[in-house]
Specification:
With 372 residues, the protein is of the alpha/beta class. It is built from 13 helices and 7 strands. It has a 7-stranded mixed beta sheet, sandwiched between helices. Helix 11 links the parallel strand 4 and strand 5.
């Protein structure tokens, strides 16, 4: 018994010092054995509970280190087991590696609340319990397609690092995965007029028929990749496509929220006066609708400024944009931001002003009329 207690007391520091997934998984295995031994004896609940909690911490650390060590082969359900080298890192199998990576994506505050709840119930925290929490927070309904969202709130903990390069205002590639799943098929043409870091390209070209194997044309006023064509959509207008696209995806600057981050051009949407910003968006959406294939869609994502205070109201960009679009609005999907978008001083300021900080973007989807 003394040896087990001593090992549990040293485990926290060992987890912090772990440098590889294998080291974290070794600690995890030892803690799992200790927790089972103590629980079986029906004694030392507090120590057994601490061992179970630290086992979860070791699993989380293993997942974080695995994701860092293997960015090109990160634990995913769509990888062949032999290619992921999960066994070399001490994971039981691919599923085990996936669970640990997901635990590493949880907010520490959410983990702490779960652990405290288990303690109040005199139950042991488990990796599967934390994994269930991850699925609840991320609205995961399909284990084979963890990116798929079946409700009209599309919440993603982090961007999938397979899609796109770093770029101001970068959105999760999982948004395009879902759009392609719902509105396109393999072989369809997708166009992106504000391509940014190229997430749309990487999703469409991915070898997966659920969301990839699509043709794609991408444009930007200031291209960051050679597979993105340079075009100032506001000044030059929408290109004339030889093939009618099945979907046009638009992730423009959300007016002045990030003024200066996308360049200093006068025609950059982030730098336009608000009325001209709306006029430009209306022109772009309506122009895309006119060129789409029958039943094709335009998908536009936009976030409003902070708003909804009794004496102060910001700009609900989605509402103003919908008013000027000549199309059938199919969906208004909510895409939450991370709370990490704001700092403590933002919270203090908004309390003092009695306003609210905006924590979501609108994803608007219009369909081209079949007889248009």
């Amino acid at each position: 018994m003394t040896n087990q207690l001593a090992e549990v007391s040293k485990a926290q520091q060992a987890i912090e010092l772990a440098k590889t997934p294998g080291e974290a998984n070794e600690i995890r295995a030892r803690l799992k054995a200790i927790q089972k031994y103590l629980a079986k004896r029906g004694e030392q609940f507090e120590t057994a509970f601490e061992a179970a909690k630290l086992e979860c911490e070791a699993a989380t650390k293993a997942g974080q280190l695995w994701k860092i060590a293997s960015p090109g082969e990160r634990a995913r359900t769509d990888l062949a087991e032999g290619s992921a080298r999960w066994s070399d890192a001490g994971f039981a199998d691919t599923k085990d590696a996936v669970i640990c990576v997901r635990l590493g994506e949880l907010d520490p505050q959410d983990i702490a609340m779960y652990v405290e709840d288990m303690l109040d119930k005199r139950r042991y925290p488990t990796e599967n319990g934390l994994h269930s929490l991850w699925k609840q927070l991320n609205f995961v309904e399909d284990e084979d397609r963890p990116w798929l969202r079946v409700y009209n709130i599309w919440n993603f903990a982090k961007c999938d690092d397979r899609f796109g390069i770093s770029h101001p205002g970068m959105i999760p590639g999982q948004i395009m995965q879902n759009l392609n799943w719902y509105f396109t098929a393999p072989g369809d043409l997708i166009v992106d007029l504000f391509a940014g870091g190229g997430s749309t390209i990487d999703v469409c070209e991915y070898d997966n028929p659920d969301f990839g194997q699509r043709k794609v044309l991408a444009y930007d006023i200031d291209p960051k990749r050679p597979d993105i064509a340079q075009r100032d959509i506001v000044a030059e207008g929408i290109p004339d496509w030889k093939e009618r696209p099945k979907m046009a995806f638009l992730d423009p600057p959300y007016w002045g929220q990030m003024r200066g981050s996308y360049g200093g051009q006068d025609t950059n949407l982030a730098n336009l006066p608000l009325p001209k910003f709306y006029d430009a968006i209306h022109s772009i959406v309506n122009g895309c609708l006119a060129q789409l294939a029958p039943r094709g869609v335009v998908a536009l994502i936009v976030g409003g400024a902070e708003f909804l205070g009794e004496r102060s109201r910001g700009n609900d960009h989605a509402l103003e944009i919908v008013r000027g679009v000549n199309g059938n609005l199919l969906q208004r999907i909510i895409v939450p931001y991370s709370t990490e978008n704001y700092q403590a001083h933002d919270v203090v300021r908004t309390k003092a002003k009695k306003t609210m900080l905006n924590l979501y973007r609108d994803l608007l989807v219009w369909e081209r009329s079949p007889d248009a």
